[in-house]
Amino acid sequence: MLLMQPKTGRQVILTYLQYEIARATTADLQRAANFLEKAREVRQGCRKQRTKSRKDQLQGWRKHVDDSINW
Q1: Angle at the Cα of 61 from the Cα atoms of 55 and 63, rounded to 5 degrees
Q2: 38, 54, 59, 71: which has the fewest Cβ within 10 Å?
Q3: C-alpha triplet 35, 40, 43: angle, nearest 5°
Q4: pLDDT digits (tens, 9 = 90+) for 23-45
């Protein structure tokens, strides 16, 4: 007996998106594509900001150290 694997959340959303794409106008599709592009850019910017903050926090101790001393 072949058991059906349950769909992942992504698969469910893609099925829903395909259904709506078939019924959308060109203008609807253009607005949706622009929205998705901007959303991806925002996520990338947030990721860069978090990465920089983590790096700065890891290197923060260097502000309080006198590096001019050689041992």
Answers
A1: 100
A2: 71
A3: 125
A4: 999 999 999 999 999 999 999 99
In percent, the amount of the chain with pLDDT more than 70 equals: 93
- Specify if 49 maps to a domain: yes
Q: Are 24 and 32 in contact (CB under 8 A)?
A: yes
In this structure, is residue 43 part of a structural domain?
A: yes
Looking at the structure of the chain, the number of domains it has is 1
In the Cβ-directed half-sphere of 59, how many Cα atoms lie within 13 Å?
Answer: 6
pLDDT (0 to 100) of residue 26 = 96
Q: Coil, helix or strand for 25?
A: coil
Give the domain extent around 46. Answer: 32-58
How far apart CA 65 and CA 71 sit, in angstroms, is 14
